[in-house]
Amino acid sequence: MKRTSIFLALLITSAGPLFADKDEQAGKQMRAAWDPIHFQPAIANATDEQCLKCHKEILDRKVLPTSPAGVKADSVLAWYQTLNTYEGPQETFHRRHLVTPYAKKIMQMKCNTCHQGENPREEAPIPPDEKNTTFTLRKQVNPEICLMCHGAFPDYKRMGLPSHWNESRDMFNNDCLICHAAIRTNRHKVNFLKPDAIEAEAKGNGDVCFGCHGGRQWYRISYPYPRHAWPGMPKEVPDWATDRPTESPARFRTHAQEATK
To answer: Which residue among 90, 128, 208, 260 sits deepest, i.e. has the most Cβ atoms within 10 Å of its Cβ?
Structure first.
């Protein structure tokens, strides 16, 4: 009995620092979760440097060389690699949008382009149980942000095409600018894209356009892009565009757009 008491005393004494370290770590995580940078209005002006100071691992992660099923990543093409604009091996989600050569060439996305804050109060408990059914998962990213570049190809009949772009591209030499050099000429005027670079890359290469307009489709619907007025734009609004906005959401507008308002 005496030996057991001594053993328990030693065990509790030695475990004390361990529990203290865990409590200290939990305290740091809680303070970080409630840092003002994770909420509006601070997150709207947060820089990537501020975000990556704590979330650097998001760009350090690599694609697994072999899937759990044993398929080697370098031996297959992912669906989004079938366009000729995809460069290099498969990449992780965040790296593909932020640091790959093609992303830097045509985009200038930032962490807060997609992430606009969260509310830890709405985070679902882990593990879930029957007593916590009132909690909802926090929405860290508005799906419409993804839809802007990963929607379905619009109804080809709107454009007067004989069939879907997958089938009719050869009729137009896989060049969207054959028509769009004169139609809807005010495009990509948002602060997370580089319009001049996109226009230059798109000359003679329809995959540059198709990549974000159906070629990397995640959704079954297309995004209802704003119909920014262009020189020679018909006054009549087609039925499919009746409810379309005429400018981008305020936080995506460029300084040049704001200056003309």
So the answer is: 208
Cα–Cα dist 245/218, whole Å = 23
Burial class, 127, CB count within 10 angstroms (exposed 0-12 / middle 13-18 / buried 19+) = exposed
Cβ count within 10 A of residue 131: 7
Identify which of 188, 199, 182 has the alpha carbon closest to the alpha carbon of residue 233: 182
Mean pLDDT of 74-83: 82
* Per-domain boundaries in the chain: 148-259
Quote the pTM value: 0.79
Question: Three-state SS for 85?
Answer: coil
Cβ-contact 221, 147 below 8 angstroms: yes
Q: Across residues 176-202, what is the average pLDDT?
A: 93
Q: 249-260 pLDDT, tens per residue?
A: 999 998 655 545
* Backbone dihedral angles phi then psi of residue 204, each to the nearest 5 degrees: 80, 5
pLDDT of residue 18: 52
- Nearest to 194, CA basis, from 63, 77, 106, 110: 106
> In degrees, to the nearest 5, what angle opens at C-alpha 193 toward C-alphas 64 and 175?
90
Distance CA 261, CA 246 (A): 13
